[in-house]
Specification:
The complex is a heterodimer of chains A (235) and B (460).
Chain A lengths: L1 H15 L1 H25 L5 H19 L1 H9 L1 H7 L4 H22 L2 H9 L4 H28 L3 H17 L9 H10 L1 H10 L1 E3 H27 L1
Chain B lengths: L1 H31 L3 E3 L10 H8 L5 E6 L4 H16 L3 E6 L5 H6 L7 E6 L6 E4 L1 H4 E3 L6 E3 L1 H13 L4 E6 L12 H9 L2 E6 L1 H4 L6 E7 L7 H12 L3 E5 L11 H6 L4 E3 L3 E3 L4 E2 L2 E5 L2 E2 L3 H8 L12 E3 L7 E8 L5 E3 L14 E2 L3 E8 L5 E5 L15 H12 L11 E2 L9 H32 L1
Helix pairs in contact in B: 2-6, 11-12
The chains are: A mainly alpha (235), B alpha+beta (460).
Pfam family, one (chain B): ABC_transp_aux
Keywords (chain B): Membrane, Transmembrane, Transmembrane helix
Protein name (chain B): ABC transporter
């Protein structure tokens, strides 16, 4: 229940400021552009390339969406208030996390107009579209977890944004190392790459391993965030 | 105070380490046995029952060296081979960049990129190369890309693990369809199914070799000698298997040998050319697309909706056998609008009283349950030639026939999966609207709402 209070407060702050609208609108602008140009130029009733572009754009947007979440509280000193209140830190972090996730999910919901278009003018294979949305959601959820972690590190929002983006970029390009290494090292690199894991979803294959991997990334970063915030209380 | 910090600090590091350990462990455990659901309509990423069966029955280890550079071809092959290794521990796959590791490529004589090599791990003389052009092809009709990796890989696994190869002989010496010029695809398809394929001149070989598992007769234009006839009859009486193909592309039927052989079972190749105005390929009445009868050879083709194209066919007439051990089954028939044109000179083909009335039989099987003899008779040989074998399901029909003859009915070939994407049909106006809605209207609405909220709040 306490988490819900934070969640509501945070969601309100997102939608009462222009930030969420600007970001969601921008994400949908680029996604819509990719969707329309791809579909109209190839005539294929496919969304898999669109998902790839959506997560790529969200990689730039998510640090902006999440950078203020915790650093702002620290700067304003409101974190002291939160910490001394009976609210548990876990509730606070989770509430903020789910608020940001809701903003992202809303833009995915609006983007459902793309498959609707495909349905009207063609008979698309909905399997890959469904898995694509699951993958896009999980990837975004992982981005947000990384972003909220970055936000807990500093009270400067801008620095939090840059840190978040750097971590995301690192996760993104780590698969390139796979071409350098051979054997086990390559295996490890391939397996921790967020990008590599995404192809199954794009292809229409729902793999429990991939879902668990994304959930692991999310759980790990949310947990570390809680730890970092908690550390502030006793230091 | 410092002590407290240390305590909390080490607790924090410890809890993060423990969580990380649990997560890594969980992921590693799951990686041992991947759980996947293929949600594509055509089951693009699911192995066929045939492959699963082959992998389940595998008795020897198979090493796979895939010589690929990093490109989309590699990804596709890797995805497929991952499915194999997930199902069978006996398959060991290694990807090799031929530029970085040229020695291995040299050892096995690999000269091209995107080549996959299958080796019997115990006996590496049993090996098969699968070239990139074997697995990446393009549909002749639609120009779409087709990936037939599973078919090729599964066959390669069968081939390198099979104990004995079945010998198939293509009979030559009577102006049959030339096996070196016209049957190259047919031959390599048979080799892919684990046959060792050779030409056979019965006279020179002094009969049909004892190791013959199958003889193939493709439209001889001159008669066999009496000795040759005796050799063939002798082979068949002892339970031999024969694949006889007799088409009408050379005009009237002048040679008698084949009908002499078939007369033993009251089967006759008619001296006609089949015209089917109702079921044919691209409005060409001389290229019938026959209907499938209920038969092991055609069942899978029927369910896979794979048609057969049989240009320049002859019809086959047969009488039901009176003997209990002989069974004759038809598996290809024309529509009832078809007829067998007997006048080869008539320019305007039309049905007249001399012609044979449809529906006509284009393919039958003759089996002798006593001796094990099996014969497939097709009123067509063009289907096996390089020009026509690629059309529709022709290749599958021929391979299924050969495998049925040699009692390898499990080895029904797997049809390649085409990346058959649904296409979109829109008028120019509809396309414009879609672009405007997705690119302009949707983001604009969101920004307008945002602007409204922002300015209203400021005004308050």
């Amino acid at each position: 229940m306490k988490m819900l209070t934070i969640y509501k407060r945070e969601l309100k702050s997102y939608f009462l400021s222009p930030l969420a609208y600007v970001l969601v609108g921008f994400l949908l602008l680029i996604s819509g552009y990719f969707f329309a140009t791809f579909v109209l130029s190839t005539q294929y009733a496919l969304m898999s390339p669109v998902f790839g572009n959506m997560v790529f754009v969200f990689m730039f947007i998510s640090p902006i969406l999440t950078m203020k979440l915790i650093s702002e509280e620290m700067k304003n000193g409101t974190d002291q208030l939160l910490m001394t209140s009976p609210l548990r830190i876990t509730d606070m972090v989770l509430g903020k996390y789910f608020a940001a996730l809701t903003v992202y999910t809303l833009s995915l919901v609006v983007s459902l107009i793309y498959p609707l278009y495909l349905k009207i003018y063609s008979t698309p294979d909905f399997g890959p579209i469904l898995t694509g949305y699951i993958g896009t959601f999980l990837m975004g959820a992982a981005f947000i977890a990384i972003g909220i972690f970055a936000s807990s590190l500093t009270e400067n929002q801008l620095i939090a944004g840059v840190i978040g983006f750097s971590i995301l970029l690192l996760f993104w390009i780590v698969s390139w190392l796979g071409d350098v290494f051979q054997g086990t090292a390559k295996n490890i690199v391939d397996n921790i790459s967020l990008l590599q894991r995404f192809t199954n979803f794009q292809n229409g294959v729902l793999s429990l391993n991939d879902v668990v991997f994304y959930l692991s990334v999310i759980i790990f970063f949310v947990f570390v965030t809680i730890m970092v915030v908690d550390k502030r209380r006793w230091s | 105070m410092n002590k407290l910090r240390l305590k909390y600090g080490s607790n924090m590091v410890l809890s993060i380490a423990i969580l990380l350990g649990i997560l890594i462990f969980g992921n590693l455990v799951l990686a041992q046995k991947p759980v996947k659901w293929d949600l594509t309509k055509s089951k693009q990423y699911t192995l066929s029952d045939k492959t699963k069966q082959v992998l389940k029955n595998l008795k020897t280890d198979v090493t796979v060296y895939a010589f690929f550079q990093n490109d989309s071809a590699k990804t596709q092959v890797q995805n497929l081979l991952d499915e194999y290794t997930a199902l069978s521990k006996r398959i060991k796959v290694q990807f090799i960049d031929p530029d970085k590791n040229p020695s291995l490529a040299q050892k096995y004589g690999i000269t091209d990129y995107d080549t996959t090599l299958f080796l019997n791990s115990k006996d590496d003389s049993k090996r098969q190369i699968v070239n990139s052009y074997d697995i990446f092809t393009q549909s002749q009709e639609t120009g779409q890309n087709i990936f037939s990796g599973e078919q090729q890989f599964t066959q390669a696994i069968i081939n390198v693990t099979e104990v004995n190869k079945t010998n198939a002989y293509i009979i030559q010496g009577h102006n049959e369809v030339n096996s070196t010029d016209s049957l190259t695809t047919f031959k390599s398809a048979l080799q892919g199914e684990g046959y060792s394929v050779n030409d056979l001149n019965i006279g020179q070989a002094g009969g049909i070799p004892k190791d013959a598992g199958l003889i193939i007769i493709a439209n001889p234009k001159s008669d066999y000698t009496q000795q040759e006839m005796n050799a063939i009859m002798d082979y068949l009486k002892k339970g031999g298997k024969a694949f006889i193909m007799m088409g009408a592309e050379n005009g009237p039927l002048t040679e008698k040998s084949i009908n002499d052989i078939l007369s033993n079972w009251n089967v006759k190749i008619d001296n006609d050319i089949v015209v089917d105005p109702s079921r044919n390929y691209f409005m060409d009445a001389l290229s019938p697309v026959p209907e499938y009868g209920y038969h092991d050879i055609t069942d899978k083709l029927e369910s896979a909706n794979l048609a057969t194209v049989a240009p320049s066919s002859r019809s086959i007439t047969y009488k039901a056998s009176s003997s209990s051990n002989i069974s004759i089954q038809s598996f290809l028939t024309t529509s009832d609008k078809a007829w067998g044109e007997t006048n080869f000179n008539s320019k305007q083909a039309s049905h007249d009283k001399n012609d044979i009335k449809g529906p006509l039989t284009l393919g039958i099987t003759i089996t002798d349950s006593k001796t094990g003899m099996k014969i497939v008779v097709l009123g067509n040989d063009l289907m096996a030639t390089d020009r026509v074998i690629g059309l529709e399901g022709n290749r599958d029909l021929l391979m299924n026939s050969a495998n049925w003859l040699t009692n390898k009915t499990v080895q029904i070939s797997i049809s390649p999966k085409s990346l058959d994407y649904a296409t979109l049909f829109m008028t120019g106006k509809q396309a414009d609207y879609m672009f405007i809605v997705t690119v302009i209207i949707i983001p604009l609405i969101i920004w307008i709402i945002g602007g409204y909220v922002f300015f209203r709040r400021r005004a308050l």
